[in-house]
């Protein structure tokens, strides 16, 4: 997967994205937004897509959304205008792997169904940790692959197809735990199964206080 290829895939998804992926991820998004609003303050939503989550953040939270796909962002901008979301500070093009913000700019970094769509997930996680302030949190909803058994085999077999569509089906949770193990400034605060089908998790990663 390349970043340009992923952007193209989501430009193609943009017209139908909410129809196809709106209801199926609704409960997971609600759980992530609750977790983010519990901390509140400055929230960066990476891979904000069509902005489907934006109306659901608390009015007291200040939200910035970035994404690599212009066509997805056009939808997010239209939604922000249509619903007059005054707590949305900016909707901008931005690459999860090279965020255009200084260190510790945000209280919470949210990435919903994004890490398995990013070309280099570890690089994106490093960036999330960099722009999150000490004592803040990274809140992720993520696909988790089966790794073994029939489902694991099917997920690996589907990878060439799903990569062209902009996501991975074979995505081990060890990617997160291995990444956390390489760093002294983050820890796993929570992992919780979320619908649909138990193939997804809400993951909260705490950035240690300075
Ligand atoms: C499956 S969609 C999720 C969209 C939205 N977060 C949601 O809950 O429906 C994945 C999103 O991640 C974005 N994305 C993929 N790679 C990215 C990157 N390197 N930087 C920023 N956004 C990226 C895609 O353009 C797409 O909008």
Automatic annotation (TrEMBL):
This protein's UniProt keywords: Methyltransferase, Transferase
InterPro entries: Methyltransf_11, Methyltransf_Superfamily, SAM-dependent_MTases_sf
Single Gene Ontology MF annotation: phosphatidyl-N-methylethanolamine N-methyltransferase activity
Keyword Transport: no
E.C. code: 2.1.1.17, 2.1.1.71
GO biological process: methylation
CDD domains documented for this protein: AdoMet_MTases
Ranges where the Methyltransferase type domain occurs: 44-140
Enzyme superclass (EC): transferase
One of the Pfam families matching this protein, by short name: Methyltransf_11
Protein name: Phosphatidylethanolamine/phosphatidyl-N-methylethanolamine N-methyltransferase
Species of origin: Sphingomonas endophytica
